[in-house]
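Please, structure for the following, as tokens.
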Amino acid sequence: MGILGFMIACDLALAREHRIAARLQQTGEHIEPDETPYPLTQKFSWFATVCAFSVVGVVFLVINKDLEWLIHTGDAIPLQTSQRYILTEISFIVAIIMAYILTIINGYARNLKFFISTENHVLERVSKGELDVEVPVTSNDEFGLMAMRTNNMISALESRTQELNITRDASILGLASLAETRDNETGGHILRTQNYVRVLAEALRDNSRYTDLLDDYTIELYYKSAPLHDVGKVGIPDRILLKPGKLTDEEFAIMKQHPQIGADALAVAENKLGTNCFLKYAREISLTHHEKWDGSGYPNGLRGTDIPVSGRLMALADVYDALISERVYKPAFSHEKAKQIILEGNGSHFDPDVIDAFLAAEQQFIEIADQFADKAMKKAS
């Protein structure tokens, strides 16, 4: 009975541990494990030792009792009958003990599976870039300590990632602002166009052909990369870039080199730092935002779907902002006038799917233009 009590207590303790773990996972709470918990290996060793001595000890006691019983009964009961009684008794007791041992092993396996599956699920999400997750710390043992240290690792990784993102964003805006200071355009152009690109991409995602392509991560990279679309203008001479009037054919031919200049500069960064999605999209946008759907754009005369989605989105965003902004060669157009000009380019300048996305996000374009309007734009409006 003492051995059965010990095993029942082990089983109930494991069940209680599982209930606590499930509750903590639901509530998002944690326990604080000791830095030096009692080792699980020693717990296994003690449990295995107790089980072994329990089985041997109980069988020994049963055999000893049965031998005394045989001595007292003598020849009153046939030997075969006595043998059957003794083997049945031993088998029953061993079966009960083994059943409880297997129940305890199953309970521990259930708790272990809970921890491992939770840990794997969290690490899988972290591997996809999701850093707002935690492993529930649900036990005061090595597994609890492992969960706590995993959470500390995720927290440190999130902090480092935020720091890197801030550094990256500052570098992007610095480069983009440098390009803008050499142009007649204003700093608001950067903010407006990158927001246009984001709302365009979100609207385009409703099109079933783009749903899988335009996930949240990709759209965010488009948003971050968009300010570098005109970074190649730093390679255009001031006499052309800052010319107050219309460019000559020769000057415009030089101006048309800025997408390639920007793409080449970003390609150098890729070669030095290794290719990643951000540099890839930044290079695509720089190189292809002046390409046209019918193939009449520059610098490479790409046509249709040969133009990357990022370039197609940037093309419309850039043209729209140029239309509603004042330039030395033209006044700022109203939204309706800009919309009319863009619709005239449906299927020639712009991807028809992107035009549909523009119409779906039209009100958001108006709000972005108002939110990040330059002084000149506000005066014009």
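The chain has 15 helices and no strands. The chain has a mean pLDDT of 86.
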